[in-house]
């Protein structure tokens, strides 16, 4: 688990700086260990707002409202949360709202808890069924480019984009030398 | 099953209430919950400052929160129904945690799902929405039983001095529908343009 005394993982800092440079001002989330660093950084930034949700679909509606008011938002969630969002995703396509979500994956690689598998293995399909473009980061080296591309596609191109942060990427922290 | 005492006392006529509320809050940015609240707001007069939802049930409060945080100098007014608000009950906690000074939620509560055949909703079956909002940390939660309370309510909406939820007990009238545009792209673009943003 990523706790407060865990050393900063460079790709997680990269996500924060990419969101910040992309002009994201509202960051909504249901927490996940893989997002913990970004959430802490957002909380410490006076120009960004962290918004903790009770369920992930709130973040879809919140992002639409932020865009109506001239701000950019991002939704951070775990793969299980994608299932909670499915009907609310309709709002994005019905109104062509820009949308950016970063999804930490479970249930796909060295998963201990098999209860994570049904939704984790359906996550990409569920997003694509609802018209959301899916990008996947599997190595630390590609995180910056993919998240930056997703920010541009969403807020310059008006698209709906999800970046999946693969369980293999997140799992790599187990092998970092302390 | 007994009906809630508030239901038997409900006297407020929804269309008149919404029309007078909007008239008293001319600067507000308005988001409407799907179904009758969307028709009520449109029936009072169309505006680029109205965003009519035709779906996204349960999403009005979170959507209003995103808008309220982005536009702190404007009053954001959600007009929705009891069924829509009940589906997004968690979002009351989410919004209250942010303490948006400029977010007001007006729940037109007839205790029923009007769009689907007037099945009883939870507010007819024991849920007290204003108390739920208060317990979630909404800074001002109230019930409204009479049209005469409207000026004070509008004053709170315009004051932008704390998150508000008003549970307005309306009559169970079934009124002819008045339908705004269902073109979400158009509704979004004109709303942003009115605020000075590129569509």
Q: For the residues shown, what is the average pLDDT of chain B?
A: 95
User: What is the count of helical runs of chain B?
Assistant: 9
How many helices of chain A?
8
Unreliable spans of chain A? none
Q: Return the string of H and E elements of chain A.
A: HEHEHEHHEHEHEH
Indicate the percent of residues in helices of chain A.
40-55%
Q: Largest sheet of chain B, order of strands side by side?
A: 2-1-3-4-8-7
As residue ranges, the low-confidence spans of chain B are: none
Oligomeric organization of the protein chains: heterodimer
Greatest contact between two chains: A-B, 32 and 38 residues
Structural class of chain B: alpha/beta
What do these coordinates show?
The complex is a heterodimer of chains A (178) and B (199). Chain A contains eight helices and six strands. Chain A is of the alpha/beta class and 178 residues long. The longest helix of chain A is centred in the last third of the chain and has 13 residues. By secondary structure, chain B is α/β, with parallel strands linked by helices. A six-stranded parallel sheet of chain B has the order 2-1-3-4-8-7, sandwiched between helices. In chain B, strands 5-6 form a two-stranded antiparallel sheet. The interface between A and B is medium-sized, with 32 and 38 residues.
Secondary structure topology:
The complex is a heterodimer of chains A (178) and B (199).
Chain A (H helix, E strand, L loop, with lengths): L9 H12 L2 E6 L6 H8 L5 E4 L4 H12 L3 E7 H6 L4 H7 L3 E6 L12 H13 L3 E5 L5 H13 L4 E6 L1 H5 L7
Parallel strand pairs in A: 1-2, 1-3, 3-4, 4-6, 5-6
Chain B lengths: L4 H5 L4 H11 L4 E4 L3 H8 L6 E3 L7 H11 L5 E6 H6 L1 H10 L4 E7 L2 E2 L5 E2 L8 H8 L3 E5 L5 H10 L4 E6 L14 H11 L5
Parallel strand pairs in B: 1-2, 1-3, 3-4, 4-8, 7-8
Antiparallel strand pairs in B: 5-6
Helix pairs in contact in B: 2-8
